[in-house]
C-alpha cells in the first residue's frame, strides 16, 4: 500500500513542479489507515539507530511547534492585510498539518518530546510578531530564513535515515513524510521570495540572525 501512496517528483527541490498521486502524510491523517503497520508500529533497531530516530523526531516536532507559533504571531499582526493575510493563513494551515503528523510520529515511535516546547512557542510567536511589525517584507524574510534552514535540515535527516532499516514499513513511510514536508517548506521559501522577502530592511543581517537562531534551536532540541 505504501507504494501506491508515493509521490512522483520532477524536481525534488522545487515542489511547484511535482506531480502528487498521494501524500505520504495521508497515512497519518486518514482514519482508515490507522491500523497500517507503517503507522501503528515501530521497528526493533539498534541503540545507535534509535538515537538517530529519536533526535530527528524530537527536533522535527519542536520545529513544527515553533513554525505554528511563528505564523500565529505573523497572523496576529498581518492577518487582516488583504494581500499577505490569506498567504500567511495558507502556510500556517500547512504547518498545522505538519504538526499533527509529527505528534503522531512521536507517539508511534515513543520519542520523548523536547523539554523546550514552551520556549519554542514563546520564541516562535515573538519572532513572527516582531518581524510582522517590521513590515510585510520582513515577515516574508523571516519565512525565507527559517525555511532555508529547515530545508537543509530535512536533507541532512534523509542522509541519516539511510542508516535505518527499510525492512520495517514505518521507515520508508517516514522518509516519504520528511521528503514531503521538506518540499512544502521549500515551497514556502519560494513564496516568501516571490513576495519580496529580499526587500526587507537589513535583509542580510535579519536573515543571518534568524537562521543562526534556528540552527542553535535544532542542536538544543536534539539534546533536550
Please describe what this structure looks like.
- The protein has 224 residues and is mainly α.
- Helix content is 68%, strand content 0%.
- It has 8 helices and no strands.
- The chain has helices spanning 26-29, 37-40, 47-78, 85-108, 117-133, 136-160, 170-194, 203-223.
- Helix 3 (47-78) runs antiparallel to helix 4, helix 3 (47-78) packs across helix 8 (203-223) and helix 6 packs across helix 8 (203-223).
- The longest helix has 32 residues, at 47-78.
- The N and C termini lie far apart (36 Å).
- The model is unreliable at 1-20 (pLDDT under 50).
In short:
The protein is an all-alpha fold. It has helices at 26-29, 37-40, 47-78, 85-108, 117-133, 136-160, 170-194, 203-223.
Amino acid at each position: 500500500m505504501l507504494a501506491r501512496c508515493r509521490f512522483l517528483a520532477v524536481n525534488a527541490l522545487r515542489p511547484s513542479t511535482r506531480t502528487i498521486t498521494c501524500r505520504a502524510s495521508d497515512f497519518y491523517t486518514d482514519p482508515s489507515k490507522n491500523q497500517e503497520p507503517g503507522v501503528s508500529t515501530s521497528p526493533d533497531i539498534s541503540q545507535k539507530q534509535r538515537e538517530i530516530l529519536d533526535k530527528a523526531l524530537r527536533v522535527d516536532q519542536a520545529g513544527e511547534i515553533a513554525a505554528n507559533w511563528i505564523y500565529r504571531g505573523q497572523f496576529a499582526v498581518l492577518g487582516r492585510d488583504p494581500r499577505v493575510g490569506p498567504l500567511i493563513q495558507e502556510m500556517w494551515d500547512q504547518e498545522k498539518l505538519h504538526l499533527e503528523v509529527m505528534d503522531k510520529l512521536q507517539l508511534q515511535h515513543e520519542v520523548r518530546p523536547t523539554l523546550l516546547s514552551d520556549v519554542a512557542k514563546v520564541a516562535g510567536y515573538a519572532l513572527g510578531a516582531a518581524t510582522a511589525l517590521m513590515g510585510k517584507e520582513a515577515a516574508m524574510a523571516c519565512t525565507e530564513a527559517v525555511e532555508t534552514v529547515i530545508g537543509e535540515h530535512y536533507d541532512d535527516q534523509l542522509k541519516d535515515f539511510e542508516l535505518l532499516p527499510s525492512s520495517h514499513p514505518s521507515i520508508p513511510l517516514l522518509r516519504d513524510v520528511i521528503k514531503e514536508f521538506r518540499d512544502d517548506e521549500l515551497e514556502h521559501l519560494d513564496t516568501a521570495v516571490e513576495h519580496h522577502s529580499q526587500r526587507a530592511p537589513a535583509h542580510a543581517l535579519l536573515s543571518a540572525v534568524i537562521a543562526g537562531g534556528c540552527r542553535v534551536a535544532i542542536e538544543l532540541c536534539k539534546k533536550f
